[in-house]
Amino acid sequence: MKTRITRLIMLAGIAALVLFAGSTAAWAQTETCYSSTPSYSPDFTSNQLCLTLNNNGDTGYPGFYPVVPPAPAGVNTVLRLTPNATYTAGSAWYNTQQPVAGAFSTTFTFQLSGSSEDSLGNADGIAFVIQNSALTALGPDGCGIGFGDGSCTSGTGGIPNSLAVEFKTFPTGTGDLSGNSVSIQSNGTLANCIDICNIAFNNSLPITLADGNPHTVAITYTPSTLSGCGEGGTGPCPSSLDVILDNIDLFPGGVPFDLTTIGLNSGNAWVGFTAATGGGDDNQDILSWTFTPQSQSGVVMMGTETFFNFEGGVANGGYNYNAELTSGSPVMAQVTVIPVADQATCHAIVNPNFPGAQCFVYDKGSGPTTPSPVMFELTCPGSPGGTCGSSANPFLATLGTDFNFTSALNPFNPNEPLVGWLKGVGPDPLHPCTQYAGNTPPLFHSNQISSFSSTGDPIGSGKGSSGGTGSCWLLSYNTPGEAPTVTVAAPANGGVYQQGQVTNANYTCTTVNNTPNATGPYLTQASCSAIDSPGGSVAQGAQFDTATLGTHTFTATVVDSATNTVSQPVTYTVVGAADVAILKLAAPRVRSGSKLTYGIGVGDFGTANAVNVNVNDTLPPGTSFLSASGTNIACSIVNKKLACTTTPVPCAFAGGTVSCNVGTVMPFSLFLLNGAVIQITVQVTATPGTKLNNTATVSAANADPKPGNNSSTASTTVTDH
Hints:
The protein has about 725 residues and is mainly β. The strands form 9 sheets. Strands 1, 3, 4, 7, 12, 15, 16, 17 and 19 form a 9-stranded antiparallel beta sheet that branches. Strands 2, 5, 6, 8, 9, 10, 11 and 18 form an 8-stranded antiparallel beta sheet that branches. Strands 20, 23, 24, 25, 27, 28 and 31 form a 7-stranded antiparallel beta sheet that branches. About 45% of the residues are buried.
């Protein structure tokens, strides 16, 4: 502890000299640790006291120093594990133990440069280490790389209860004569070593680790799942560790390893780095570092979908995030899940810009037994700024999520779920799901949905497009402004068509697709179809059914790529030929000033019902309208007896003409006395000697083969007595 305090005082003094004299010596540590997890991005300027630094005698290292060019933009301060001096070893541990039994991802950028021992070459390398030994843990220098013992080391033993991902840069006799390899080492709860402790090894790297350039590493741990592996896909899936170096997956499919075998502290352990030099040396620097529980990393590329699995993935009742580039070079992406406490909390986040939208509840959103909505943070630690693209170099990809859900927790209409794949950008581009103060402006600002599918309980799947940077993503339903539309121009709603009439269906489907606006949704049409009942399927522009007499229901339906389904029904009637006839009767004589009643009879002498039957009677001069009424009589044989029903016929008078809407008239026969009778009463005002000629006409929607009987005239002579 005394050494620790002495080192801090020395560093603070050196920093003061920097301020006065512009020295390039080590930079001072900050006064307080403000982060519970390692979050050194873009560099190590802040939160330096979150680290415990150990060495094997050189009290100046590890420490915080100005970066050695070249370096990514914005990186000024680095964690130097060893200097370009021989036989040094250093370790740096985050003071707070991190959860490592569950899924996590850690990303760091390193730079190995400045070798001063040209005859012996580079130093031995660095390692990312997880250990439950001590904050003072440090192993041998030289080929031990500060964590492991072996045939080429002497003195201090390896770190027990540890796992190391080793980046070796000096050839040794332990399996890597190239001096350029990555391996994974663990001896369980015993002291780690560099010979027999090897779990996985890759010495065919396409890059040189100690070439003086920055290199980015993502290490992902996926805990075991209950099923999906082994014979028949029903056995347990082992825990695994994967390492991605400069967008290259060094161990495709991951290396089976269970971190609980190193002896954890309730699932937690210290995380950090070790490094060492031997006869060769380097400045061995860590430029940036983040450690994210519930996070996964992977390389996203064109032509292949990359899955980031959480809570065992979809096959084990969990969920995933998936990504595939639509253009551009492969990029290392990191996806972090941000569970939301409950649906109500989530609604408050999304509703300001999407009123009424509801957040999907994933079955294992907050853990194995806790359903909740989930937000996904997508970043690209290896890209400039770590944000997966920029306006000059956009991140173009198809992004999505597959998940298990319970319908009772997500009460959406299965025919029209109105799913939204909402994109948000908070104030911190490296943690895009971080909200603004008071959610102002609102976190989620655009809907990028392009497709959705659901098999009901328990699987759902949504996808959308990204046209810019990595961001915060969330799946919702009942999202406003997404429903497609369908219109039917033909057949006309309420239309009447003759039997056998040549007709063409005319209907139009429209989906919500705002692609040019780059704010989504990017919905496309999955289908646009129509069903005629009776009649069957009808394609756009094809003949709809006019062969079948009677009432038809024609329904056009649009389905978009998010399964939103909207239908528009119309009804129409197909009629056969009908011979409607009219007979008008009146008294042959009437006295001037008295009332005159016209009687009108309407019948159908054809074989099909006459529909939309109308009677029009223009009253002759010399009369004034008093009243009009009618009755539609429909008869049929019931139990061998004639049964008739009557329906009032509405009549109206306007502009000198009486119009009566008779409706449907069934065929007339001697046994079925169907038809209509109408009475029109007028006041006679004509002078005696005038002859009143009154003609009434009948029409129907049916074709009429005998139009000659569609009118009838009654004549009455006006007298004075």
